[in-house]
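Saturday, quiet lab. Running sequence design on the structure tokens for the scaffold JK sent over.
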């Protein structure tokens, strides 16, 4: 639900940007035509290009979350693709500003300077207010698409600033005032474009997220005592959402309890890292450095017991990966003195001992017990 609200909010910002850009473009074109100011008209044309950029990002956001059989993870990378194209558009806009000032004969100012300056100042204030709040929203929503659109507004502010600098420099005869202003603004635009392009390309290449996010996820996982080890922890970005792929070693051999553990981990990860949209957790039993073997013996301790529940002695061995016995002890069957249910009681005792292998006469072992041991990953054999 939180992710859905964020998606709707991202779309709302893009719609507002498109409408506001259309209004500003029309206003600049009309004013440029009315007062005969070519530079204002050019700025209006530049603003129209931003309308297309915002519309492109909006379309990406609108369909990014669409899931289907062919796109089971959604099409969130459309937002990264739009951000990539948007960053190139920002660079192009910066280049056009430099070219206009340095290579096209400078900026020509209209005769009615003060009215045009007042008009441009009002537009810049409105543009900056929208840019400030949209960039703030982009950080909160962690949206590369909205961030790219906000930087487009910075380009608009820069272009309008060039207009004002050109008109003012012309009026007060200040040398190189407009050139210095252009360099500062264009550097800001280029740096913002670099940030957007970097994040978008990393997402398209499925690069890992930042170390802080990984550390937070690992801290959540390590907070569960039944997790032995994190075999793999991958988190990547796809548009505005994060996708996690995790492999864990868990102590539980019971499938149901392992599922419950995984569900708890997922819920806590969703709470701690709000941008997580998809979490895939694979779990496997704990990899011990040894195999614990229970050999069921008769009274002599030399022969395998003929019946499971009536075995007299149980030899517990811990065998390392090289096949060598690192620990060996014999205990009397703790349920041998019972009258009924000896087999199931002994099975429960062996499970509590976390044995990995049971050596017993398979002919006597009930099929239900064989199924139980198999489900728990305990090997049953008649060979030592």
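Result came back. Writing it out in full:
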């Amino acid at each position: 639900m939180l992710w859905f609200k964020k998606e709707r909010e991202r779309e709302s910002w893009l719609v507002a940007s498109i409408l506001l850009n259309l209004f500003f473009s029309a206003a600049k074109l009309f004013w440029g035509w009315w007062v005969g100011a070519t530079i204002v008209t050019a700025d209006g044309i530049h603003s129209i290009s931003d309308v297309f950029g915002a519309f492109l990002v909006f379309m990406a956001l609108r369909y990014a979350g669409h899931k289907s059989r062919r796109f089971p993870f959604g099409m969130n990378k459309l937002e990264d693709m739009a951000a990539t194209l948007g960053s190139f558009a920002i660079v192009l806009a910066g280049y056009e500003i430099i070219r206009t000032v340095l290579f096209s004969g400078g900026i020509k100012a209209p005769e009615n300077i003060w009215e045009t300056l007042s008009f441009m100042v009002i537009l810049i204030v409105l543009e900056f207010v929208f840019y400030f709040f949209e960039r703030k929203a982009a950080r909160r929503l962690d949206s590369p698409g909205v961030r790219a659109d906000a930087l487009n507004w910075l380009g608009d502010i820069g272009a309008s600033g060039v207009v004002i600098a050109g008109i003012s420099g012309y009026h007060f005869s200040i040398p190189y005032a407009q050139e210095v202003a252009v360099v500062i603004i264009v550097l800001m635009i280029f740096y913002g474009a670099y940030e957007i392009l970097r994040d978008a390309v990393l997402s398209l290449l499925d690069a890992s997220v930042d170390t802080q996010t990984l550390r937070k996820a690992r801290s959540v996982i390590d907070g569960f005592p039944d997790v032995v080890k994190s075999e793999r922890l991958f988190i990547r970005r796809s548009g505005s959402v994060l996708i996690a792929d995790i492999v864990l070693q868990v102590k539980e051999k019971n499938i149901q309890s392992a599922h419950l553990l995984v569900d708890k981990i997922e819920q806590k990860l969703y709470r701690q890292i709000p941008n997580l949209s998809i979490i895939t957790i694979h779990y496997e039993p704990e990899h011990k450095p040894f195999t614990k073997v229970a050999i069921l013996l008769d009274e002599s301790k030399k022969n395998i017991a003929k019946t499971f529940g009536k075995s007299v002695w149980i030899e517990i061995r811990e065998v390392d990966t090289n096949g060598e016995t690192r620990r060996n002890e014999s205990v009397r069957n703790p349920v041998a003195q019972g009258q009924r249910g000896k087999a199931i009681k002994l099975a429960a005792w062996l499970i509590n001992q976390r044995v990995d292998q049971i050596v017993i006469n398979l002919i006597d072992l009930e099929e239900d017990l064989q199924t139980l041991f198999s489900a728990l990953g305990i090997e049953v054999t008649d060979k030592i």
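Notes for JK: The chain has a mean pLDDT of 79. The chain has ten helices and eight strands. Ask whether to fix the surface positions before the next round.
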